[in-house]
Design goal:
single chain; 230 residues; alpha+beta; five-stranded antiparallel sheet; two-stranded antiparallel ribbon; 7 helices; 32% helix; 27% strand
């Protein structure tokens, strides 16, 4: 088992990244309406076991945004985290683009299964899909994968496993750190997103070498830059 390293990125680092204006969503997108979301939820979960299990590996861990009935650690076999989705909106802007986490093929990804609370399925699924998929152009980015938990193997719904319909950035971890250290937009900064993800993983006793390396590099970039914006 990998020994956990300290978290070097701090709220102080995040505070040094100047805010930036930018669009909340890509202006070219066609947003999903409530009926669209309900149809998509039905297609994704029809004939699936209850409670519905959602595999969280990033922001859903620390900000699920829906009624969670239970949480438990899980491992997605054959997947790993990767800051590969390029953003010029949300936590990025045209002048200071950001990155969002996705799942890429290969390896193992430790995360958390979040069970949708019984009786809340319609509103919870609508909330999850509105938050994760947003627009028709992103609607294909939901799928079921196999995860391992203390109950054995089970299916779980997840998002952006081999993302489609998005602009991808193939960067080294050093290049990712440089971008995240400066990224900011309407929803905040890339450094904040990364810090909250690291803290969320740590709360569950999860250590991901890639994420821990990245947060240290981002902290160093912000310290070297002075403001995190140049």
């Amino acid at each position: 088992m990998t020994r956990s390293r300290p978290i070097m990125l701090s709220p102080g680092h995040v505070a040094r990244v100047a805010a930036a204006e930018g669009p909340l969503h890509d202006p070219r997108w066609r947003m999903l309406s409530d009926p669209d979301l309900d149809l998509l939820a039905d297609r994704l979960t029809r004939d699936r076991p209850r409670p519905i299990a959602v595999f969280a590996y990033g922001s859903l861990i620390w900000n699920p945004g829906f009624a969670v009935g239970a949480r438990r650690r899980a491992t997605a076999i054959g997947w790993h985290r990767d800051f590969s989705i390029s953003l010029e909106h949300f936590r990025g802007s045209p002048g200071r683009p950001g990155l969002m986490l996705a799942l890429a093929s290969g390896g193992r990804c430790e995360g958390v299964v979040l069970e949708v609370a019984a009786g809340t399925e319609p509103e919870s699924l609508r909330a999850i899909l509105r938050r994760e998929l947003v627009a028709h152009e992103l609607a294909a980015n939901a799928c079921w994968i196999e995860v391992e938990t203390d109950r054995g193997r089970e299916p779980a719904l997840t998002f952006y496993a081999e993302p489609v319909g998005t602009e991808l950035a193939e960067l080294t971890v050093e290049e990712q750190a440089r971008r995240l250290a400066r990224a900011a937009g309407a929803a905040g900064s890339g450094a904040e997103y990364l810090l909250r993800t690291v803290q969320g993983l740590a709360e569950f006793g999860i250590h991901d070498d890639y994420i821990w390396t990245l947060q240290q590099l981002v902290a160093e970039e912000i310290e070297a830059d002075g403001t995190g914006t140049s």
